[in-house]
Amino acid sequence: MKEFLQESWEVVKQARTAGIPLEEELLQTMEMRYDDILIEGQQEWDTGEHTERIRSAGRKKKSKAANLGQRFKLHKEAILRFIRDENVPFDNNQAEHDIRMAKIKIKVSGSFRTFTNAEQFARIRSVISTFRKQNLPILSSLASAFRGQFSF
To answer: Is residue 121 within 8 Å of 43, Cβ to Cβ?
Structure first.
């Protein structure tokens, strides 16, 4: 599955760079390959040793692979959204990067003293993140914003 997703991303990335939309036939082929991988994987995780143990509620305990496979089935549309919608990134690295500073602040100081302080911190970090995404110099852009002279 990992190889399939990485290969799909390469195809999508090349098409986006060239400004060419992917053909519907290719999109359907990618979705069918995704389904085929899940079918093949299900044969493997159904025979796993973890499926035989019974939980206290009477259900069979699933292996980690079976749980992951079930999530792949359940969230297929969201996982493959990047192949159809050019506004959807392949990964969530930017979201993780944006939240990292808040987590570091909480680890260092323990927490924010007030909810208002947390809101202000988030607002400032959001503005800084926007400056970075727009390739603008952060310090001079902040200074311009505080003077009321900033525009994108």
So the answer is: no
Q: Go through 57-93 and write b for each residue having 16 or more CB atoms within 10 A of its CB, e for each that does not.
A: eeeeebbeebeebeebeeeeeeebebbeeeeeeeeee
- pLDDT for residue 49: 57
Q: What is the pLDDT of residue 51?
A: 47
Name which of 92, 83, 91 is nearest 15 in CA terms. 83
Helix H or strand E encompassing 77: helix 76-79
Q: Is the dihedral of CA 135, 93, 33, 76 positive or negative?
A: negative
Contact 26, 10 (CB under 8 A): no
